[in-house]
Amino acid sequence: QVQLVESGGGLVQPGGSLRLSCAASGFTLEYYHITWFRQAPGKEREFVAQITSGESTDYADSVKGRFTISRDNGKNTVTLQMNSLKPEDTAVYYCSGAGSWGQGTQVTVSS
């Protein structure tokens, strides 16, 4: 069974950092493009970052220079390191790949 599970969300002050993880089961992450999306209240889901099977990366302009996506093949996990967080980064973050979506993890940036 293909499954993705996100973790690592929480409450952080502006300027702080969080590290999100997307753990896969039922398939091998390194053979797929894995994408992080986010959805803020009242807004549409938007692209955040992607890592391809060839380990190329891409980022939304709003997070470039602050977020880093990476993959740990040994742990079958993709990580999103988020630094210099802003209140506008508040959203539910989802990872997607191999036709599957995770359940999401809440990130709240507030003082």
Topology:
Elements: E1 3-7, E2 10-12, E3 18-25, E4 34-39, E5 46-51, E6 57-59, E7 67-72, E8 77-82, E9 91-97, E10 100-101, E11 105-109
Parallel strand pairs: 2-11
Antiparallel strand pairs: 1-3, 3-8, 4-5, 4-9, 5-6, 7-8, 9-10, 9-11
* Strand/helix succession: EEEEEEEEEEE
Largest sheet: 7 strands, mixed
Q: How many distinct beta strands?
A: 11
* Helix fraction bin: under 10%
Overall body shape: globular
Q: Helix segment count?
A: 0
Kindly estimate the percentage of residues that lie in beta strands according to DSSP. Answer: over 45%
Q: Give the terminus-to-terminus CA distance.
A: 40 Å
Rg over C-alpha atoms, rounded to the nearest angstrom: 13 Å
Q: What is the overall pLDDT average?
A: 97
* Helix vs. strand class: mainly beta
Low-confidence stretches: none
Task: Please tell me about this protein's structure.
The protein is mostly beta strands and 111 residues long. 0% of the residues lie in helices and 51% in strands. The chain is built from no helices and eleven strands. It has strands spanning 3-7, 10-12, 18-25, 34-39, 46-51, 57-59, 67-72, 77-82, 91-97, 100-101, 105-109. The strands form two sheets. Strands 2, 4, 5, 6, 9, 10 and 11 form a seven-stranded mixed β-sheet that branches. A four-stranded antiparallel β-sheet has the order 1-3-8-7, with no helix packed on it. Strand 5 (46-51) and strand 6 (57-59) form a beta hairpin. It is globular. The mean pLDDT is 97.
